[in-house]
Amino acid sequence: MDFRKGEILLVDKPLEWTSFDVVNKIRWNLRKKYNLKKFKVGHAGTLDPLATGLLIICTGKKTKEITELIEDDKTYTGTFLLGKTTPSHDLETAYNQDFPIGHINAAMIHETAQGFVGEQTQVPPIFSAKKINGKRAYDLARQGKEVGLKENEITIHSFTIEAIRFPEVDFKITCSKGTYIRSIANDFGAKLESGATLIKLRRESSGRFSVDDALSVEKWVEIIQSIEVVGAD
Q: Looking at the domain 8-71+209-226, which fold is it?
């Protein structure tokens, strides 16, 4: 592999790592291996720290393809917890509200999921990487400041309920770029006249790439360390 010329790395992002953590780990090892002060490395689509799964990393000249790769549809699997919500819509923040779930049945859950399929607008969660006047929304939210985010146009191509274990619901969603599954969780709970929190999320695929072909961060570091570098500066 020629990381300096350009490679696409499929990484299975571990839990609690940020996407930038993965990029920095790969970049640091590449700089060390090639003995370079700078090395182009970037990712094609952010994954939240509490999400796992496919993270596409591009190196060298392949970083020019990032914009195109970000446009690809993504598929996610995960779990909603019914009856509770958090400010971040996931487990980054503590539960702040409880809702009744006794009126919810399996038929309602399946019907509600199908109601999400199609083109729509979505408000990103305030605990997101969206920028407001040059500042990340999550930084403002953590400071207790008011965060106003504009709606995004998104498309949900499919929304399948994989299993129901009240109060937990397993799902599989294929969607367009820019879709926040955390916001879907929050909206899902509201449509059930209850609440819901995203408690597990995994990116299964992005465009033509699958997590089945991805390697761990540690494995990619081993590969980088094992290559022979010719003509390094």
A: Pseudouridine synthase (3.30.2350)
